[in-house]
Structure formats: C-alpha cells, structure tokens
Amino acid sequence: MTRSKAPPGSFFDLAAAGAGAVDTPAAASETAAVPPCNPSVDALRERFPDGVLRNEVSAGDQDVVYVHPARLVEMLGWLHENPDQQYDHLADVTAVDHGGGRPIEVVYQLWSIPHRAALRVKCELPLDSLEIDTVTGIWVGANWLEREVYDLFGVHFTGHPDLRRILMPEGYAEGHPLRKDFPLRGRFSRAEQTRRALTQDPEDYYMPGEIGGRVPQLVAEDAGGDAEEEDDVD
Amino acid sequence: MLGSGSPAFLTTRLDFVVNWARRNSLWPMPFGTACCAIEMMASAASNFDLARFGMERMSFSPRQADVLICAGRVPYKLAPVLRRIWDQMMQPKWCISMGACASSGGVFDVYSMVQGIDTIVPVDVYIPGCPPRPEGLIYGLMMVQEKIRGESLANHADLRAEDPLAAGRPRADDREVTDLTGPFGNSTHQNRVSGLVATDAVGRSEDRLP
Question: Which domains does chain A have, with CATH numbers?
C-alpha cells in the first residue's frame, strides 16, 4: 500500500479544483468534497459501508471519520488488527462539547507506527444517551484516557474495567466541568467548595492497591519466575 | 535587673536570644506546585544563595520545617494535603504565600482552584508577582525575620496557640471565604452561572468594572 504524504498546499489545490474527479460517496457531507489523504478512510468505507457516517479533512491533511457509535469497537478493532492499517498507537481519547444541545463528540486520535499515518475517528453521542463501548480491549492505554473523558464530560464507557474520576476529587459532586453548561466557577459557593475540599481524605483518592498493596502482589505473582531463575542458576 | 511594669531586662534579653536563633535558622518547607517553585529553586541556588540568611536547608519533612513556602497554584484536590502539611509542622511556624496564584488564585478564577491559600492556612507574608523574582522571595523571608524579631515569649501563648479542633479545617469561616474569594479584576465580567443567570458577581455590582 502506498502512503505518500500530501504535499504542502494540496488542500487548497484540491479545494480549488472542486475535487470533481474523485468519486465521493453519496452520504458524504459538503466538507467531504476534499478527498481523504489517508487511504484508510476509503478502506474503512469499503469494509464498513454502514458504519462510516461521513468523513472530512481537517487542517490540510488530518482525516476525520465519523462513525456509528454501535460499530465503533468493531471498526477500531479492525483498524488495529488489519495488516494494511495497524493503528497500534492510541494517541488520545478526548471529547468535544459544542454546546447548544448539540451532540458531544468523542474523539479517538490514532497513529499507525508501521505506516506512519494518523487517523481521527469521531463518534457523536446525543446528550440524553452519553454511552459508548470502551476500547480498553483494543488499547490498554485507553483506560485512563476514557476515565478522563468520563470525569470531565460525563460520557459513560460501558465495559470499562475501572470507570472512576481521575482528575477531579473522587467525591466531586458538581458535575462534569468541561461541559459547556458547566459554570466557570463551579456550581457551589467558594465556601462550600473549600469546606468540601477539606473534608476529603487525600488517601481516599486511591485504591489500596495503588497506595502500597500492589507491589507485594507483583512479587508474589513472580513466584513462578523465581523458579525459572533458579533453573538458570543451576 | 528584674524590673516591674515594663518588660523585664531578663525577659527582653531572652526574647532577643530566642528570636535571633529562630530567625536565623528558618528552614523552609517547599510546597512548590508551579512556576513559582522554579524561582524558589533559583533562590536556593548559588546565584541568590538563600543559605546566607539561614534558610540553609530545604526541609522536605514538615516536622523539621519552620516556614511553609506555598509556591504556586493550589487546586481544591490539593487543599487537604496543604492543610495536613501545615498541621504536621511544629510550632513555631510561619507561612509564606508566594505568587499571585497562592495568594489570591491569580488568573485561575475557576471551578478547581483555591482562591488564596489563606482560606486554608494562616499566612504571614504574601509575595506578589507572577512569578516573583528570587529577590522577592528573599525579601519576603526577611519580612518573616522582621516579624520574628518583634515577637515576645511573654505573649507566646497568644502567638502560638493552636486549637486542636482546627486541624484539617479551613482557616476562614464561610463568610470570610466569600469575602476573600469574591470576583475581582477581569473576572468581574464573568458570571457564576453561564447563560447570564443572576449571580454573585451581578449581585455585588460594586465589584463590577464599568
């Protein structure tokens, strides 16, 4: 598969040309008039014709694919496993709240180390059903990233092994701060915030395993490894 | 020698010796959370050499520290940690609030940030700046030294009394927190609730810029 990086200015050239020569799918929006720079977009559209809602090119050469939330894990898994794709690095999981009752976008920024290609996958979730499947089964590193999105936007990742707040305190009761309807100074008065902050025990933020219980467990699990080492010594 | 009425000669001499010892061996407890901590490190390094004034050793254990230097912004999640460190320090102890964020919240007038650590712990000296230069920190520490110079063992109980029940609680009561954290500066143009619902900022119209 040839993956040539788009030359500088190609975005403007193609936009000026109207991209009439490129066959864009009928479902694509106006912004998809620019042909994708990344061949993974077409491959994804071919493999999952009903999963890809639309695609666009952002900032010149960044391909964005909007996918159906129900097919997300399946499609990301395919992008991860397929030898022509191999998106083995999940660079970021984040979300965008555009406000005004518009759906919240969950953004997956992928990077393929073998192919040196970047792909941005977005899922639009309506405000009344902020639920999406976790991708921790594909990239283990998604664990804390999804916790952050849950903490700041209130998106629930079903199947997540440990969905807790990660940045705000565990007992934070004011909501999800990066939502557009969240007041800048929080919902409680400063006095209430101060009082609540000081009634927290700092050690409550961590599970017992995170404070100290985990290290001895690892040693105990390595008991089999110790036996191997003894064999090596022998 | 032991006069009556005015402070006795022996008492004042003892005060002088004790205060001299205290003010020339102030060990800082560095509580650095942001860029102010970089300036604090520069103050301790050879160019500015804080050790000249007796801050010989940054004490990373609160139990062997005399002055808490809170350098940087403190989020609410860190507030109980700051308070616990202050409670762990032994008397006599002093506190310096270094920089705009520690003193007032600075530009971070947001949901997550303590609006001045004086709502959490008592503060002796506030150092303005964003961040203050090392000279500023040294000046602040010398102000602490001046404060110590004026102390007397005669009113030691007043100066150094601590209510055990106050441990782990905010220093300021609700009303004082409201006064200390009221909107000011550019933040008067913001509202507590987005969408122009009536807020504290609107209710306190005298705080708003024209």
Answer: 10-167 (3.30.460.80), 210-234 (no CATH)
